[in-house]
Design a protein that fits this description.
With 302 residues, the protein is of the alpha/beta class. The chain has one domain: TIM Barrel. It is 49% helix and 14% strand. The protein has an 8-stranded parallel β-barrel, surrounded by 7 helices. Helix 10 links the parallel strand 7 and strand 8. Helix 1 packs antiparallel against helix 11 and helix 8 runs parallel beside helix 9. It binds flavin-adenine dinucleotide. The site of flavin-adenine dinucleotide (FAD) has 21 residues, from strand 4 and strand 7. Pathway: Amino-acid degradation; L-proline degradation into L-glutamate; L-glutamate from L-proline: step 1/2. This is proline dehydrogenase. Its EC number is 1.5.5.2. Its cofactor is FAD.
């Protein structure tokens, strides 16, 4: 791991800075990649995306949930966002991290919380994506997904191409709506590919597999090479446009996002918002050092 990446990952985990940042409002350029700290400003951004033919998957940011009280608070905030999607009448669904609603506290408690969210979403016909976190939480996330799929079909998850086991997981989840990503965490050699080229190759392989399965495919990447290869494959195999979409993060490659939507592809932007923006932003800086320019420029001009 490069020094810069380690530095920003370390900053993202600093709890004092995380709590401090909740009181600051969006600072250090975070406003470019976080869509506000409250529902009404976030909804403004979602409306703008919708006006460009782009849907949203909304993430109520939240980190370091260690108690039942914090998890319940996060669940209530997510339910409030769900209501807001209805009230504002926007084209949006939700992305949820299970650790935010108690996965590290107690499995059964977390399952009950996500059941409540998925049931409420099902009443509005809104999809809920279970974001995939680090490897330590993967099996539990898939177990929770399996339990939810017994009663609901408005739920899916994320598969990370850097993991050796992902091909098997995709085979087992052929009917499920899946977001496919390269993978954002630092994982060991025992469980994951380390070489960028190997990860990219596996990513394309998994994309092709799921595009040919009944489950809906969300191709979530900023990598134009992958996007071009996916487009060519879809054309070659006559895969219907309504069986897949592209996804990118809010504030990244915004022109390309609009262009893909204009070309007629379904497109969804991942829209994070909330007071807990700090760790998310530090992870984005770690991922792409070019973003540091954003932070520095805004810091200097403040
Ligand atoms: P990279 O490998 O980062 O980039 C490939 C190439 O694309 C670069 O070399 C560059 O040429 C170009 N490029 C990339 N970004 C830019 C840019 N901003 N501007 C110009 N060129 C650029 N990970 C998880 O582990 N779990 C999740 O639940 C999860 N959800 C995600 C949801 C969405 C919508 C997205 C987009 C990503 C998600 N990720 C998730 C993160 C993902 O795993 C990757 O870490 C992240 O997307 C970086 O990889 P990449 O595919 O975008 O391409």
């Amino acid at each position: 791991m490069g020094v810069t990446r380690s530095f920003f990952i370390a900053l993202s985990k600093n709890q004092a800075l995380n709590s401090g940042a909740k009181k600051w409002g969006l600072k250090l350029g975070a406003g470019k990649v976080v869509a506000g700290t409250d529902i009404s400003s976030m909804m403004q951004s979602v409306k703008e995306l919708n006006a460009n033919g782009i849907g949203a998957t909304i993430d109520n940011l939240g980190e370091f949930v260690r108690t039942k009280e914090e998890a319940i608070q996060a669940k209530e905030a997510i339910l409030e966002t769900l209501e807001a999607i209805q009230v504002y009448g926007v084209n949006a669904h939700l992305s949820v991290k299970l650790t935010q609603i108690g996965l590290d506290v107690d499995f059964a408690f977390c399952l009950k919380n996500i059941q409540e969210i998925v049931a409420a979403a099902a009443r509005y016909d809104i999809f809920i994506n279970l974001d995939m976190e680090d490897y330590a939480h993967l099996q539990q996330t898939l177990d929770i997904l399996e339990a939810l799929l017994k009663d609901y079909d408005n739920v899916g998850t994320v598969i990370q191409a850097y993991l050796y086991r992902s091909e098997k997981d995709i085979e087992n989840l052929q009917n499920v709506r899946l977001r496919l990503v390269k993978g954002a965490y630092k994982e060991s050699e025992e469980v994951s590919l380390q070489d960028k080229k190997e990860i990219d190759d596996n990513y394309l392989k998994l994309i092709k597999m799921h595009l040919q399965s009944p489950g809906y495919t969300s191709i979530a990447t900023h990598d134009h090479h992958i996007i071009e290869e996916a487009k060519a494959f879809v054309k070659e195999k006559n895969i219907p446009l309504n069986s897949f979409e592209f996804q990118m993060l809010y504030g990244f490659r915004t022109e390309m996002q609009k262009d893909l939507a204009k070309e007629g592809y379904s497109f969804t932007t991942y829209v994070p918002f909330g007071q807990d923006w700090y760790a998310y932003y530090m992870r984005r800086l770690a991922e792409r050092p070019q973003n540091i320019n954003l932070a520095l420029k805004s810091f200097v001009s403040k």
